[in-house]
């Protein structure tokens, strides 16, 4: 077997998409997206993409010197909730279109429509502060 997406190891593929890449459906069929990456450990970057019936959705995060950057592509006719790991919402630089939804569980949440967006965290984030328990 050479694929982690094989049904025998499907949980590995699911964990990579949802936890490391942070890409999950917010509603059936991916018309609503949930983007909630959980950077941690020695990982410094991840890219996840998925072709949905609405088009390609993509997440990419990097962590340089403990400072995360998250880029997201939301396909046409969809919406997304973006959860940016940060020590507080005040240190997140969000696009003008992003509607703040609050701060909980170590992440600042934003609502967005279709488009390409980049979020940055302005102060150093320790690996343990950026990580949240997997539910």
Key features of this structure:
135 residues; mainly beta; five-stranded mixed sheet; five-stranded antiparallel sheet; 2 helices; disordered C terminus
Can you count the helices? 2
Which consecutive residue ranges, at least 5 long each, have pLDDT under 50? 127-135
Query: What is the 3D form?
Result: globular
Q: How would you state the average pLDDT, rounded?
A: 85
Strand order of the largest sheet: 1-2-6-9-8
Work out the number of β strands: 10
* Percent of residues in helices: 10-25%
- The arrangement of helices and strands along the chain is HEEEEEEEEEEH
Distance between the termini: 28 Å
Query: Structural class of the helices, strands and pairings?
Result: mainly beta
Rg over CA atoms: 14 Å
Biggest sheet descriptor: 5 strands, mixed
Strand content: over 45%
What is the topological layout?
Blueprint: H1 10-20, E1 23-25, E2 32-35, E3 45-52, E4 55-64, E5 67-74, E6 79-85, E7 92-93, E8 99-104, E9 107-112, E10 115-121, H2 127-130
Parallel strand pairs: 2-6
Antiparallel strand pairs: 1-2, 3-4, 4-5, 5-10, 6-9, 7-10, 8-9
